[in-house]
Amino acid sequence: MKQKVKLNGALKTYLRWPIYLSIILLAMTVSIFMVDTEAGIIMSIYLGIYILFTVVIYYRKRSTILREIVQYATTYNCVQNKLVKQMIIPYGVLDCEGHLLWGNDEFLDIIQDEKSAKRGITNIFPEVYPGMFPSSEMDVERHISLGDKDYKIVIRRVIAMGAAGQEYVEETDSEGSEEYDVIYSIYLMDETEINTCIRENKEQRLIIGLLYIDNYEEALESIDEVRRSLLIALVDRKINKQMQSIDAIIKKLEKDKYIVIFKQKYLPQLQNSRFSLLDEVRAVNIGNDMAVTLSMGLGVNAETYLKGYESARAAIDLALGRGGDQVVIKDGDKILYYGGRSMQVEKNTRVKARVKAHALKELVEAKDNIVIMGHAIGDVDSFGAAIGIYRIAKTLNKRAYIVINEVTKSVRPLKDRFMDNPEYEEDMFLNSTKALEVTNENTLLVVVDVNRPSYTECPELLGMTPTIVILDHHRQTGEVVKNAVLSYIEPYASSTCEMVAEILQYIEEGLKLKPLEADAMYSGMIIDTNNFLMKTGVRTFEAAAFLRRSGADVTRVRKSFRSDMNEYVKKAEALSSTEVFMDHYAIAVSTSEGVDSPTVLAAQVANELLSITGIKASFVLVNYNNKIYISARSIDELNVQIVMEKLGGGGHMTVAGAQLENCTVDQAKQTVKNTLEQMKQEGEI
Predict the structure, then answer these.
(1) What is the number of other CB atoms lying within 10 angstroms of the CB of residue 263?
(2) CB 403 within 8 A of CB 508
(3) How far apart are alpha carbons 489 and 491 in whole angstroms?
(4) 391 falls in which pLDDT band (50, 70, 90)?
(5) Among 217, 292, 412, 639, fewest CB within 10 Å belongs to which?
(6) Number of helical (H) and strand (E) elements in the chain, helices listed first
(7) What is the pLDDT of residue 620?
């Protein structure tokens, strides 16, 4: 016992008190001797007896005292082990390979299958595996579910003393850790109740939504006057019935506008049905030639009701900007889209174009110079629209520049006609570097044929001037130019050139396009409408007539679009390699080798594939500039914009595209297939 047990600390000091007292008594005896010798002798006799008695007791009873101490410690250790075993917090010990070494009663009651846990804790908790165990003092936490319970798992690294693993101490110093075995303690904390409260609190939040009838006036005009009240009543009934099913409050703000408030717990129900209200209202028909369509914007998870309403406003604006007949959910920076299957009906009135033209004129007159920018790898539509804005600036006696970095083959014949032309300045066209030099706070930046900042020819220009104008016919996405002072985005328009042609007619009476400029704009309309076969309306032909009167020559335009034999062969090769997927979707791969404008060629191939019977949509991929460009086309049976948005792109219902990075053509092709399959399973197509 003497060799095995060594005392230290307070207990060692306590057992040495007789020695300290003996020293004090010895000093007292010496002091007494100095006062009285006889008294000192008597005191010495008693001191000797005390010392003898103390020595005998200290050495003879020491083992007994130590034995009692060890017995108490053993008893205390047993009590401690029992307390740990019966502790209400589930607790277990794992080895480095994830095998359960020991668990208290609560832990074993939860896992139930102790044998499986001893073979590996992953058998009980798939989220817990040896690779995630902590390698330092930092704990690892996971949130898991087991049965109908939710738990937070905390795993802590612990040093085990001795090979047998019978005594455990917490790691305090990594030095010398080679002498110990590493084990891991695992704690389970029941989060079921708090998660239930959080979920119920979230479900009870109120969602604010705005619901608009897209084509109220147009739909009423398409039906007899006596039936108009019945049509509106049926639409109101459909809307109110749907809202009553989710315990919502709905209030009509105007004849075609509603505000909706409902609990968030009903949102998944609406999402699972993919907002069937859109289809139900569209199906209302009592003789009306035009189907009624709805748009809805919802603000979700906002901190306040005011912010929720602002999010709903932003969402409904985005839904309308994308063409209507859809629901947009704005959850912070996250945006979800539902619907958008029907074609937007062209509005016959040009009031909006006139208002935008007057606003643009005021902005041009107030600035020193105008910088016009399209999208990267500009096409004929962006070039033609830029030329139209250039003519507006020159008519108002303002200096104007067009930003072009890479000139594609389709644009080059048109651009060459402006080069070395005495009627135009030498610096009419600038690259991004020179454009940055001429742009300042007193510059008007006009962005045409694109509304996504990252897709512009020079995104840096957007931050150099506070006055930005957006003119585009592509549907909006969640990525927008935030500081635009004038935004004219009309998805129903066939092309941006059509929109600019309308604006030109309201700028100033003395404005007159030159034949070269009319050719450029007319070319943009032909390309984007595929020779007036796609997305053409009454206003499209009116704009074309205006350009023809301004001097556009169809023969010159047609000659500029002719391709050489090499490109014709490449197009034929792409068409011959077409794969028909899911019986209705044509997927082809176009080459970029030896082709001046691979993206233009891919778009031409995609248009050609729509001529095949049974093909609802075409997707053509091309590897160009270390990116995979996808051109998507359809007639009216598939909204290719939604497909491309899932790949990070966008566009129109019938004309869209996307760009993929860090992947091969085969991988991109498989991504398109997976997206179509997923949309088919979810009922989107």
Answers:
(1) 15
(2) no
(3) 6
(4) very high
(5) 217
(6) 23, 24
(7) 93
DSSP H helices, 125-252, are 192-203, 216-221, 225-245
Q: Which of 517, 472, 474, 531 is nearest to 496 (CA)?
A: 472
**Structure tokens that stand for 149 in this block:** 């319970």
Taking CA 133 as the corner, what is the angle to CA 128 and CA 136, rounded to the nearest 5 degrees? 155
E-strand spans in 389-490? Answer: 399-403, 429-430, 443-448, 467-472, 486-489
d(Cα 179, Cα 74) in Å, to the nearest integer? Answer: 26
Main-chain dihedrals φ then ψ at residue 614, nearest 5 degrees: 90, -10
Amino acid at 512: K
Closest CA to 378 of 442, 321, 449, 435: 449
The residue whose two tokens read 């704690």 is 187
Nearest by Cα to 401 from 375, 431, 366: 431
Q: Interior CA angle at 76 toward 74 and 77, to 5°?
A: 65
How do residues 235-283 score in pLDDT, each as one tens digit? 999 999 999 999 999 999 988 899 999 999 999 999 888 888 998 998 8
Cβ-in-10-Å burial (0-12, 13-18, 19+) of 336 comes to middle
What is the predicted pLDDT for the residue at 170? 42
Tally of CB atoms within 10 A around 358? 13
SS3 217: helix
Rg of the Cα atoms in the chain: 41
| Dihedral pair phi/psi, residue 512, rounded to 5° | -140, 125
Whether the CB-CB separation of 607 and 578 falls below 8 Å is answered with no
What phi-psi label fits residue 243: left (phi over 0), alpha (psi between -120 and 50 degrees) or beta? Answer: alpha
* Torsion angles phi and psi, residue 621, rounded to 5: -110, 145
Residue 182 has phi, psi (to 5 degrees) of -95, 130
The count of residues in the chain is: 685
pLDDT digits (tens, 9 = 90+) for 56-99: 777 776 667 767 777 777 776 677 677 777 778 888 888 888 88
Distance (Å) of CA 647 to CA 491, 587, 656: 20, 15, 11
* DSSP-derived pairing of the beta strands 369-373 and 399-403: parallel
| Alpha carbon distance 354, 29 (integer Å) | 121
Q: What pLDDT shows up at residue 6?
A: 59
> In degrees rounded to 5, what are phi and psi of residue 244?
-65, -30
Strand order of the sheet with strand 257-263? 249-254, 257-263, 206-213, 294-299, 326-331, 334-339
Q: Which residue, chain included where needed, has tokens 């233009």?
A: 600
Query: Residue 668 and residue 662: Cα distance in Å, rounded?
Result: 10
Condensed to tens digits (0 to 9), the pLDDT of residues 301-314 reads: 888 889 999 999 98
The stretch 35-46 carries a mean pLDDT of: 85
Mean pLDDT of 352-379: 88
Given a contact cutoff of 8 angstroms between Cβ atoms, the answer to whether 590 and 601 are in contact is: yes
The per-residue pLDDT of the chain, averaged, comes to: 83
Decide: helix, strand or coil at residue 301.
Answer: coil
Residue 510 is encoded by which pair of tokens?
């003395």
